[in-house]
Amino acid sequence: MIRQTMKYGGAAAKVRSMYGRRLRPEDYAALLAMHGVREAAEYLRGFKSYTDVLRGVDISSLGRAELERVLSGALNDEFIRIYRFMSKEDHPLLGRLIERAEIDEILSFLRAWDPSLDQEYVCRMPDYFLKYSSIDFKKLEHATDFEQFWSELEHSKYYLPLANLPRDRGSSPEYPLAKSVMDAKYYSDLFTLIDRHYSGDVALKLREGYGAEVDLLNIVAVLRIKTYFPTMEDDLRGYLLPVGGKEREKFIDALVAAPDAQAALEVVKSSPYRTLFSYGTYRTIDNYAEMYLYRFNRKIMTAPVPSVYTPLAYLYLKQTEVQNLVKIIECIHYGMTPEEAGVILPGAAPEERR
């Protein structure tokens, strides 16, 4: 404990100071009461972490993807500060956030090529992440056929997992299967890195945090498939991420064996993840998972004993704030409340301060 405090105390103090500049429930309430996007932008320009990225930008003329990228500039800036502050031995772990952003961009590209969605791909990745990415996502914005996607990915670590999936020539792989394969690749590499570079309490903390993410992704996948895609149940295991440990395996076995979504839900409610449903009532299991991870990372951020997970938790919370702002500005643009739009805003309600 003393060793962790000595090693990560400075980084924890820095990110907690940055966390002190976060938007508060009263700020979210003020933004939701705004009458136009420009008014919301002017309000945000009053916050130090958004002043620079919004300078000279006409938010009202931006689409969702472009808006998200502009606001992500604040996350970009804070990632750089934290990365430079952390010791070099922790840089590979922080670098995994760039890989996560790469995977999110690849999945965004695949969604844009789904003919039923009628979307265009726009890169959302912050500039610093783009600089160190193995893929030229800005080039993919101008792709005219799907073979250009394979050509761009050919020399990356993501090519083989995706290329081995069944697909018709010139078309994308099935999205749910592609997401499952990409997530499996990410977490497999992440846990390998943890095993190689960390031990003791630090490794346990990292495995606890990322293990919870894996569990929640599996819970969401099982409940969604059992609810909306029962014909996919025969291949359900193929859509789940591999988990470590006998207890986790038993939990997943019970979820898969449940005869329907309601029975699977009862399995979750009798597991350590029963607290998933302890705050509020939300529309979808994804919303419950989103709130769980928000609360988990906030708990890590404010824990008295710092660890390498402290700055990671902060970056997760900052990313959540950016996503909240994109949702709010879209709601203002379309004249809807978050409830009407079917979105949640972790951290926006006063009772979530506890």
Architecture (CATH level 2) name of the largest domain:
Orthogonal Bundle
- Based on secondary structure, the structural category is mainly alpha
Shape: globular
Termini separation (Å)?
25 Å
Tally of alpha and pi helices: 17
Briefly note the CATH topology name of the largest domain. Answer: Topoisomerase I, Chain A, domain 4
Low-confidence stretches: none
Number of individual domains: 3
N to C succession of SSEs: HHHHHHHHHHHHHHHHH
* Mean pLDDT over all positions: 89
Number of strands: 0
Structure keywords:
354 residues; mainly alpha; Topoisomerase I, Chain A, domain 4; 64% helix
Secondary-structure map:
Layout: H1 2-19, H2 25-32, H3 37-44, H4 48-54, H5 64-85, H6 91-112, H7 127-131, H8 137-140, H9 146-153, H10 159-163, H11 175-197, H12 200-228, H13 246-257, H14 261-269, H15 285-301, H16 309-334, H17 338-341
Helix pairs in contact: 1-16, 4-5, 5-16, 6-11, 11-12, 12-13, 12-14, 12-15, 13-14, 15-16
Would you mind describing this structure in some detail?
It is a single chain. The chain is an all-alpha fold. The protein folds into 3 domains: 1-86 and 308-354, Topoisomerase I, Chain A, domain 4, CATH 1.10.132; 90-173, no CATH class; 199-305, no CATH class. The protein contains 17 helices and no strands. The chain has helices at residues 2-19, 25-32, 37-44, 48-54, 64-85, 91-112, 127-131, 137-140, 146-153, 159-163, 175-197, 200-228, 246-257, 261-269, 285-301, 309-334, 338-341. α13 (246-257) runs antiparallel to α14. The chain is globular and about 55 Å long. It starts with a helix and ends in a 13-residue tail after the last helix.
